[in-house]
Each structure stands twice: as structure tokens, then as C-alpha cells.
Amino acid sequence: MVPKVSLGDLLLESQYGLSVSSIDNGQYPMFKMNNFSNGFMSADGVDSVDLEKSEFEKYQLKCGDILFNRTNSIDLVGKTGIFTLSGNYVFASYLVRLKVNKEIADPFFINFFMNDDSTKKRLKSIATKAVSQANINPTQLKKLLKVPLFPLPEQQKIAKILSTWDKAIATTERLIATSQQQKKALMQQLLTGKKRLVNPDTGMVFEGDWEEVKLGELFKLGSGDKKPDDVESVQSQNNKYPVYGGNNIMGYSSEYNSDCSVILIGRVGEYCGVTRLVRDKCWVTDNALYTKSISNSVCNEFLTYQLKQYDLSRLRNKGGQPLISQKPIYGVNLGLPILSEQQKIASVLTAADKEIELLQAKLAHLKEEKKALMQQLLTGKRRVKVDTTEAA
């Protein structure tokens, strides 16, 4: 059984941040509530301040300092990140610095513990809730939050193991970002005709001008129907048909109102103008428009990519609730190559999408595995062995 101690027993001190306004091009970058990223402090979009030397020294962050978000919405209060960057950073007033006593606790272990799901729930239970925000008093935090006190070498080993997972997650996130940028550039080139692909039938690059056509010449749209009464959140043998709202699947039904490949366009609300292709039987709700008929001169996949590139959300009404109607969509002009070139372009972009989807699935798997591992390691359900060289 791993003994538990109060967080305060593991700290040298806790400190509120600076109550000063940020300025452009200040001397020192200053972390605020929005600079937390997956348990670390991120310099993206960081503000800056000017400070006297003595004040800077008082608030200067050191590697291993933990920052804790003491005031925010109930969903965000308690967010925690560890500082690992080089440079002269300080921190703002809604953050609290926790300086760990490194003789008995490892800062990275404490940070992982405070980012564990069960700890997050505990932090929310400690918070004092108001109408629009919540607050966690540092004194109460140090007293009420109990931390499992593993031997220091074991804490360090646990932190090292979990850091390995963090590196794998970060690497996969970078690969996804790179793949998405590459796909975006590829769409820009292929969907405008700036880059022409090889015709597999001739072995030569596709040639010829693209025809400019209005969308109203390519398809006719209809609005979806009221959501079925039997919609369930989980797909089953009886409720096997996806029900689509303006953007994504909102449940499953035993009924369908579309039995062929259709292009969906978000009609109203936040996802107004969002476009997606659905290939199988489904139910389209009245939050979306969909292609009731489409010309056989166009490839559905190609046209979906064209519509995404164009971004139909630009056509929504300017006032009140976002809404898009059929008429302005019909008036949009797009370039259209011959069908075989459309199909080739669509196949290249579909392959890029599948690569991104595989990476996203890998990322989700890594995060789930790390979460399960944290739950085992941080509670002592699974103990790690520390050899003498690691403990030294």
C-alpha cells in the first residue's frame, strides 16, 4: 500500500502570479490561462510584460516549476502544466506556481499526477463554484489533495515511462499537422489545375482547359427531414442507419431517407456550409441540405473536395442565426476537368485523407493507452522496478 500525503507536504512554496497588464513587445514573456498544452506550458500566443529586475527575479520561472490554474470555468479550473522551456518567462495572476521539494518528490511525477483524470475530478470537487467561474484556493489545494508518496527513484521511473508516451503522442501530433498541411497544399494545387496528374490510360499528363460551371448545373439540393423519433446514441442491429445533422453523425435510426451517395451541406447554425460525402444509406435531418440529384459528368468525391476548398460558409446570411439557402450555392462557379481527371484527383486526396485518419486513430490509441497506464502507475496498482543505477 502506497502512503498518501497532502500536496503541501511535498512543496517548498506556492506563489500567486503577477497582477500586471500585458503589453506588445515587452521584456519578458508571461504565461496566462490559455498557455497550457497537454500538461506542459506552451509559448504559442504568449503575452509579454515590462518589469523591474527585482520583480522579474521574484516571478521568474525555473525548469520543473508547476503552474496551476486557480480561477477559470469549472471545465478549465485546475489545469496544470510543468515549465520546461529555456528563456526568461514569468506568470500571471490567475496562475499559482508550485515549487516541489525535489529531495522527496519529482516535479514531473507530481505534474503527471495532477493531470490524471481522477485527480482532475478531485480538483473540481475542491473548487468553489460561482455563476460563470470556479476557484481553487491554494491553501485548500495543498491541504486536501492527497498524493501517493512513492520512493523518489520510483517516482522518477514512473515519470520517465509516461514521458516516453508523451513523446510518442507529440511525434504523432506533429505528423498529423504536417500531413494536414501537405494535403491543404495539394488541394490548392490539384483543385485549381495548377498541378496536373498523369492519366493512367495514356501515361501522359492530363491536358485541356477546365470548364467553368455553376453548381446549379451540376446538382439539385433538398432539405433533410425532421429527426426520427427512434434515434439512439449507439448503433445497433435495429438502429443501424446514421442520422446526420449539420456536420456529423448525431445518432442512429431504424429508418433512412437517403439510399445513395449524397453530398451533405450544413444548412443552419454553427456548421452552416460544412460539406461532407456520405456513401451509404442514412437519414439527413433538416439541419442539412443534400444532393437529391447530381450530374453524371461529375465525380462526387471530387466535387466534395471542391466544395470544401471553396468553403460554402462564406455564403451564409450576415445577420441572426447562421443560415445558408440553395440559391447562392447554385450561383457558385467552379472549374471542372474531364471526369477521368476528377476521379484521379479524388483518389489522390482520398489517399491523403486515409493517411491522416490512420495517424489520428494511432493518436487516439496512444492517448487511451497512456491514460490506462497512468491510472495503474499513479495508484500503485502496478509497481515499477528501479535498478541500482537508476536509483543512484
Strand content: 15-25%
Radius of gyration: 27 Å
Portion of residues within helices: 25-40%
CATH class identity of the largest domain: Alpha Beta
CATH topology of the largest domain: Adenine-n6-DNA-methyltransferase TaqI, Chain A, domain 2
Give the biggest beta sheet. Answer: 4 strands, antiparallel
Number of structurally distinct domains = 3
Class from helix and strand fractions: alpha+beta
Unreliable stretches covering 5 or more consecutive residues:
none
| CATH superfamily (homologous) name of the largest domain | DNA methylase specificity domains
* Strand order in the sheet with the most strands: 2-11-7-9
Q: Per CATH, which architecture of the largest domain? A: Alpha-Beta Complex
Number of strands: 23
Mean of residue pLDDT values: 94
The termini sit apart by 24 Å
Compute the number of helices.
9
Shape call: elongated
